[in-house]
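$ ./design --mode recover --in tokens.txt
reading tokens...
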């Protein structure tokens, strides 16, 4: 009895690195149903991707009031308090995300699709 390990499976290391960080999702924020930007499907993924590495218990921003859990319901509550629907672009969420006085620097600059998706969400009333 012996185990045969096939040697051919190891070819995956080639020219793969190129598309690593290029473009998260094309198509911008308001993809699916009819215009409204939803927290759970449009905004939350941007926050877990761009913010949660620091904004979690034990992270670099673990001592701030903005902590993400990965659960959309809980994270909605933490996030909506950082929005100002009467003056969306002045929202603390956007100011920090774009690097204005933010310990984490500019994550989503004002000219990025991610920033525009966050802005559209707040402008639309910061719905869940
Ligand atoms: C590299 C680590 C890092 C990342 C990534 C990061 N932050 Fe931060 N953030 C910090 C640190 C450190 C602070 C505390 C200092 C300060 O207030 O800027 C902070 C503070 C904040 C605050 C203030 C919270 C409070 O209690 O007043 C907000 C809001 C915020 N960040 C939003 C974001 C958003 C939105 C993202 C993702 C788009 C993000 N941060 C990504 C490090 C990070």
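writing sequence...
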């Amino acid at each position: 009895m012996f185990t045969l390990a096939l040697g051919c499976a190891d070819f995956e290391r080639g020219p793969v690195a190129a598309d690593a960080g290029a473009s998260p999702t094309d198509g911008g924020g308001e993809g699916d149903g009819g215009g409204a930007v939803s927290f759970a499907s449009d905004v939350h993924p941007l926050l877990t991707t761009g913010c949660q590495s620091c904004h979690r218990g034990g992270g670099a921003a673990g001592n701030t009031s903005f902590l993400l859990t990965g659960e959309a319901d809980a994270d909605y509550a933490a996030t909506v308090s950082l929005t100002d629907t009467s003056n969306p672009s002045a929202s603390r969420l956007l100011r920090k995300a774009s690097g204005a006085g933010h310990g984490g620097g500019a994550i989503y600059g004002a000219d990025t699709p991610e920033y525009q998706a966050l802005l559209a969400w707040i402008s639309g009333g910061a719905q869940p």
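exit 0
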